[in-house]
Every structure is written in C-alpha cells, then in structure tokens.
Amino acid sequence: MDIQYFMDVMSKYGAIAIFVIVLLEYLNLPGFPAGVIMPVAGILASRGRINFVLALLISVAAGLTGSILLYGLGRGGGEIFLKKYFKRFPKTQDVVEKKIAYLQKKGCVGIFVCKLIPAVRTLISIPAGVIKMNFVNYCISSTLGIFLWNLAFVGAGYIFGDAVFSMF
C-alpha cells in the first residue's frame, strides 16, 4: 500500500476512517498504521477536505477509547492474563514487573510520559488497569499524552505533508 491508497481511503471515508484506524492501533490490532494515517489526516486538513481541529479531536477520541478498553482489560483480568503470560514467556516477567512498579511510583506522570513513547504508549494501558490506577486520573493523563502525540503527527501532515507527498 502506498500513500495514495491512504489518501483515497481518507478522502472517501474521512472522519470515520480516522477514528477506526487510530482505534485499531491503540488496541494493538492489525490495521493501517496510525503513524501514517494521522499525517494523511493533516494533509487532507491542509487541503480543506477535513477540519484540522476535528481530525485531531477524532484521533484523540479514538486513542482514548482504545486506551480505556485496554485499561478495562487490565483491570478486569490483567492479573490472570499476566500469570499465564509469564508461564509462557518467563524472561519477560522482570521487564513487565518493572513497568508496573514504575507506574505505581510515577502514577499519572508515568502514564503521560509512556503515551509519548512508541510501542509503550499503546501497551501501558493494561498495566495501568492491573494496578487499578484511579480511572479519572488515568483518563486525564492518557488524554494529555495522546493529544500531544497525535498533534505532532496530524500537525506534521498539515505543515509538511504536501512537500512529502509530492515526492511520491
């Protein structure tokens, strides 16, 4: 798939495509990479096909929805899942336990920082649920981190997209 394919999908489905694709990424499910889709949303906003603020808010809502679902998964059955996971992959136990300890120590700041780190930003929601982090604080920290991350990608597409797109 090339950038033109993403442009065509986004032009056809707009806000719905942004929401679904970003949600899939935040759920760690296969789909289009949001790191590509969000800049495409920015390009479309720069061309007047979608409102920039709307594209950003939809991407944040999708990211928060996915994060809340994974938080709920961690809160509802995360400990059982982790026990089974550690039996199958015992070498990962130390790393995961360090991340949980980090969250317990850093709390909301830890969530905010983790939402700005590739790969970690989508997975950190499960340990947050496992430790039963305060849900409101979790949502606020997640929203702020997701907002900054998505702003960088949608904004980059808006500012630089046409220059990059013209290279393809």
Main sheet specs:
none
Q: How many individual helices?
A: 8
How many strands in all?
0
The overall pLDDT, averaged over residues, is 86
Percent of residues in helices comes to: over 70%
Rg from alpha-carbon coordinates: 17 Å
Give unreliable regions as ranges. none
What features would you describe in this structure?
The protein is an all-alpha fold and 168 residues long. It has one domain (3-165). It is 81% helix and 0% strand. It contains eight helices and no strands. Helix 2 (34-46) packs antiparallel against helix 3 (52-88). The longest helix is centred in the middle third of the chain and has 37 residues, at 52-88. The radius of gyration is 17 Å and the shape is elongated. The two termini are 12 Å apart. The model has no long low-confidence stretch (mean pLDDT 86).
